[in-house]
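Priority: low. Protein: Acetyltransferase. Input follows.
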Amino acid sequence: MARYFKKMVGTKCYLSPVNPDDFEKYTEWLNDPEISQNLLVNDKIFSLLKEKEILEDMAKNNDTTFTIVDVNTDKPLGNCSLNNVDNINQTATLGIFIGDKEYLSKGYGTEAMELLLDYGFNALNLQNIMLEVFDYNKRAIKAYEKVGCKVIGKRRQAKFFNNKRYDIIFMDILKDEFLNIRE
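Result:
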């Protein structure tokens, strides 16, 4: 059984450093078209070996990537991370997904986002956190808006999926906006 450590804890879930022993679960999630269609890696194929190497590398070299874990069952649900952390300009990009379909649309992603944003703004002292989302991913857009993210622009027809073109929406949140929502 994989071990998890409660780095940031909410009422539904907590964020734990990535455990490479979860490579089979991640491989299942990332190869599931229903999950991967909303991710930037949806055109990639993930083998067990490749995913194991990726998770091992994350565990060794990336201290801003976390497994989202159910607080009551210690079951891994997905992943979230702060990428491209720029300490001088105090910026980062955010990525998140819930891989376990039983946990979709139940508030786990929203809470994980809040925990990750809190970590980014308060522990890492970031000023601006940005993300990208495909305009067909309405569930994610709703969750991002719920935590205070705002649309800052879009790249028109930049996503080709299922023989259709979609916009990539750019959203961000500032430290003051995040802190004011929580007061």
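The chain has a mean pLDDT of 91. Helices lie at 23-31, 33-36, 48-61, 108-123, 138-146, 175-182.
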